[in-house]
Amino acid sequence: xxxxxxxxxxxxxxxxxxxxxxxxxxxxxxxxxxxxxxxxxxxxxxxxxxxxxxxxxxxxxxxxxxxxxxxxxxxxxxxxxxxxxxxxxxxxxxxxxxxxxxxxxxxxxxxxxxxxxxxxxxxxxxxxxxxxxxxxxxxxxxxxxxxxxxxxxxxxxxxxxxxxxxxxxxxxxxxxxxxxxxxxxxxxxxxxxxxxxxxxxxxxxxxxxxxxxxxxxxxxxxxxxxxxxxxxxxxxxxxxxxxxxxxxxxxxxxxxxxxxxxxxxxxxxxxxxxxxxxxxxxxxxxxxxxx
Length: 291
What we know:
By secondary structure, the chain is α/β, with parallel strands linked by helices. It has 2 domains: 4-167, 3-Layer(aba) Sandwich (Rossmann fold); 185-288, GMP Synthetase, Chain A, domain 3 (2-Layer Sandwich), CATH 3.30.300.20. It has 10 helices and 9 strands. The chain has helices spanning 18-26, 69-84, 102-110, 127-140, 157-167, 185-200, 205-208, 234-241, 246-263, 283-288; strands at 4-12, 44-49, 53-59, 87-93, 115-120, 145-148, 210-218, 222-231, 266-275. A 6-stranded mixed beta sheet has the order 2-3-1-4-5-6, with helices on both faces. The protein has a 3-stranded mixed beta sheet with strand order 7-8-9. Helix 6 packs antiparallel against helix 9. The mean pLDDT is 90.
């Protein structure tokens, strides 16, 4: 049997549904999803395997104009995804009239690899809106094949999937067939905690926070996880703790439920908060945090 394998990299603006799309294609929730922009900060690989194929999906941070060193490092993940892709999925939605980073669009136009332009959230619009977006992107990306989709509801997923399979090069697997991602368990645990911060907190809190798992102790019937949330100001720490500790308990409780479902085991989760001023603009801190 001929085996096919390749990198299918997902690129687009913040909040257009990149992470939802990857989770749908994989059938697993690897990338956290919220309604807030810039939820994804790292490049996350999700590996699909069957007997004849290995597809390495890559979810990248949303394309942004850098305001912090953190954003600059996030954009490096996007640039890397252009270099090793066998197929590029450029995802937009029916609301986006122009990608907010023209340099990225120019790079996509010049790519020699197949590009699929996926217009997401068509379930939220009407036929006229969808047709206008299709025509718009035909003019902007004449070499791309366009698919209107709903990542949330899986609409048109089968056609996108079949197209990806036809475009994969012949290759042996890049990763062990049992692997689901190149990231360790600690990373996904920290992301589940960070997702709850994005869901429950407003204004600058989600964007000023970073989560680290400091200890991961696996016992027969229980996994003990110790984590720290880093923020930039004392006032942010106060908001995260909340009145009588209610906000921090809510974040911890909801995160623990997701972690237990992911790990299929009972979890004890302890979460502390630490102030680390201006970590988003510190090269050394960003390196330490894995950005």
